[in-house]
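Lecture 7 notes: from sequence to structure.
We start with the chain below.
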Amino acid sequence: MHHLIQMPGLWHPVDSDCYARPSHAYRNLSPGIDFETRLFAKVNAAELLRQELSRPSYVCNEIMIGANTDPYQPIEREFKITRSILEASGVE
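Predicted structure tokens for the same chain:
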């Protein structure tokens, strides 16, 4: 489940060549101003990880965090998604 979080007035200098900008265009959003003001967050990531880890058929494997953008964005202060993923994985 991805949530689109609109952050009016949120703007910070971002590299105009950022490789993550096309992800917004893929969702029919502007890779310009929408990229800087409309953010996506998988707010149930820790819950999904716990479900996956608890499956009897689960096989230990690598977990990638922040494959498209830096997981330490300003909205992380509010949602704490990265922290909750680390806690769900047993890393504290």
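Points to note: The chain is about 35% helix and 10% strand. The chain has a mean pLDDT of 77.
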